[in-house]
Design brief:
180 residues; mainly alpha; Helix Hairpins
Length: 180
């Protein structure tokens, strides 16, 4: 007899759902990491622009050219700060999405584990049932063998007793015949 778990298709489906949730979570992590790298790159550009602005202020000999360059740099820095803030908002949203996918993955894994535990319990019950059936079969064979042995011994003993009685009666008959 082979073990068959009645909810095997459901368990397979739960495993598939868990795999999909894991894939979605990994993709969300990758998107979050990419957004963080972009944010870090924006910060690096901001730092470089500030350093250039400082150099321009310190080394400018022509005031008109320096003023136009400094004004362009200020506008770039302002724009960079806006881009950084937008990127920070996007990173927060992506982290939130990543956490949602992680929670979903945990839920799917818990559902799968519950079914696997049920499957394991049913398998243990099945194995116990098989062991009981085998034990009963062995006991039945043992009882049958013991019964045959006793029947055989009884037959042998009774046949011997009958044979002895028959032999004694035959001897008695011969003695009578000889005595006459």
């Amino acid at each position: 007899m082979k073990f068959k778990f009645s909810l095997e298709k459901v368990l397979t489906h739960r495993r598939r759902l868990e795999d999909e949730a894991r894939r979605d979570w990994i993709l969300a992590q990758a998107r979050t990491q990419e957004a963080i790298r972009r944010l870090e790159a924006l910060y690096a550009e901001l730092d470089e622009a500030r350093a250039r602005q400082i150099q321009t202020r310190q080394g400018s000999s022509i005031l008109g050219q320096a003023a136009a360059t400094l004004q362009a740099m200020d506008q770039f820095l302002d724009g960079q700060r806006v881009r950084i803030e937008r990127q920070r908002v996007q990173v927060r949203e992506l982290k939130s999405e990543e956490e949602r996918f992680q929670d979903l993955l945990a839920q799917r894994a818990q559902e799968r584990r519950a079914l696997e535990k049920l499957r394991e319990r049913r398998l243990q019950e099945f194995m116990a049932k098989i062991e009981r059936a085998e034990r009963l079969e062995v006991e039945d064979l043992s009882v049958m063998r013991h019964g045959r042995f006793q029947l055989g011994t009884r037959r042998t003993a009774s046949a011997a007793a009958e044979g002895a009685a028959g032999a004694n009666s035959g001897l008695a008959a011969m003695r009578k015949a000889a005595g006459k």
